[in-house]
Write a sequence for this structure.
């Protein structure tokens, strides 16, 4: 038994029984992220609750998150309802859900595509996709017509991820792929007929693209699919099988489309309520970019822009929940965690821990000055998870935000429609529901 204990007797941990929530769990179904937040406020940083016929523990402290994800990470796997029932039904044995040794083997093979020097290959396509999105916003601006910025961000990130995965040759299929992915996430119930039909369609599209690429080797493309097709395992020199490629493509589609769209949507929602922050971003963009598109070389100088993106992800982390199963009994914070228990971490809740985030509900980009970041407890901020299973595409997603935010604010002022009902809808990801209505006015520089 490993331990992370706050209660000892001559150096030997004395596990206690965690406080248990015994009330109605209807809130867990309706608004699980707010339910988790309330549990930590009422019961502390370790609390037992019941989400299914098995015990589950919510832990809400940076040290406890580090314990589960890193220090004792080998004691925890992803055999949970969210991962095995919901995600794996779509992504199969891709990086999102696979376990060792397959996961480590695949991670090692795919990781080079997301190294910084390779990310530069995607910057231009992100700028091109954002430019096309801005043409649509200009139409809304010309007609003074309200539009759903969340819907526009979904279209944009789908455009980016399909271009990055498949290149420029599937424009006619991109919309259908996006609708299929959206349907799977919204239904989130693999046994439903609509879910199965949609998944079958998506499989047919992806396998047909893989088959087409197999028949035209050496085509000179440098997209992610080409990388997957050409990659070889060090141990055997073999290439990845089509089924495994399909699973990795599905994982990248889900992780690279939905999560970034939500991040951008919530960012516009927050900026719509804080015009003074927008003015600071605009001033920085004028000083650093002087009207041109941002490049990777500009990112170190877009200091305040980066703070805004980080603070948006603090308040609205798209991956709002992380769940693991304990293989053996453990001790966390002095509390006994039985073997086979579910242990949940919630970035949404952790990012609002008052011990690490004063006035946690307030939007304040200055939380991310270098001094504050250096002094903050490690694992107090985990929008992309942590440890070896931290999101492989975190830098790809940050690059999207660092391109889309400046390009949009250089051309438009976005205004949030007041008094619209916007719900934090926590399913697999944290979505704004039903959307976020805004108006756009063209800037005259």
């Amino acid at each position: 038994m490993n331990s992370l204990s706050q209660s000892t007797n001559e150096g030997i941990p004395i596990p206690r029984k965690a406080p248990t929530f015994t009330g109605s769990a209807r809130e867990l179904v309706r608004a699980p992220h707010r339910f988790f937040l309330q549990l930590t406020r009422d019961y502390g940083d370790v609390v037992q609750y019941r989400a299914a016929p098995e015990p589950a523990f919510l832990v809400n402290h940076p040290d406890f998150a580090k314990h589960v994800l890193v220090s004792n990470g080998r004691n925890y796997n992803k055999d949970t309802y969210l991962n095995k029932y919901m995600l794996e039904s779509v992504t199969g044995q891709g990086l999102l859900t696979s376990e060792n040794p397959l996961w480590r083997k695949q991670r090692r093979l795919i990781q080079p595509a997301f190294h910084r020097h390779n990310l530069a290959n995607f910057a231009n396509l992100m700028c091109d996709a954002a430019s096309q999105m801005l043409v649509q916003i200009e139409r809304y601006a010309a007609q003074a017509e309200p539009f759903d910025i969340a819907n526009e961000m979904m279209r944009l990130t789908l455009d980016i991820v399909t271009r990055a995965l498949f290149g420029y040759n599937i424009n006619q299929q991109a919309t259908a792929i996006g609708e299929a992915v959206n349907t799977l996430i919204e239904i989130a119930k693999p046994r439903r007929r609509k879910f199965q039909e949609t998944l079958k369609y998506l499989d047919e599209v992806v396998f047909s693209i893989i088959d087409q690429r197999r028949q035209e080797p050496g085509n000179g493309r440098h997209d992610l699919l080409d990388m997957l097709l050409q990659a070889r395992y060090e141990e055997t020199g073999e290439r990845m099988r089509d089924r495994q490629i399909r699973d990795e493509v599905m994982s990248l589609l889900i992780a690279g489309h939905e999560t970034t769209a939500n991040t951008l949507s919530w960012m516009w929602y927050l900026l719509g309520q804080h015009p003074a922050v927008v003015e600071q971003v605009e001033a920085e963009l004028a000083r650093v970019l002087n009207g041109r598109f941002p490049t990777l070389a500009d990112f170190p100088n877009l200091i305040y822009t980066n703070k805004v993106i980080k603070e948006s992800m603090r308040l609205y982390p798209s991956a709002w929940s992380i769940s693991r199963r304990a293989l053996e009994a453990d001790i966390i914070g002095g509390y006994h965690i039985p073997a086979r228990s579910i242990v949940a971490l919630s970035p949404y809740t952790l990012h609002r821990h008052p011990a690490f985030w004063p006035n946690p509900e307030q939007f304040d980009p200055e939380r991310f000055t270098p001094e504050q970041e250096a002094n903050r407890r490690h694992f107090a901020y985990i929008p992309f998870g942590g440890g070896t299973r931290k999101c492989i595409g975190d830098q790809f997603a940050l690059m999207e935000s660092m391109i889309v935010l400046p390009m949009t604010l250089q051309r438009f002022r976005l205004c949030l429609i007041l008094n619209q009902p916007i719900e934090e809808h926590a399913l697999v990801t944290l979505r704004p529901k039903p959307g976020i209505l805004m108006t756009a006015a063209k800037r005259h520089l």
Q: What stands out?
A: The CA atoms of residues 208 and 214 lie 10 Å apart.
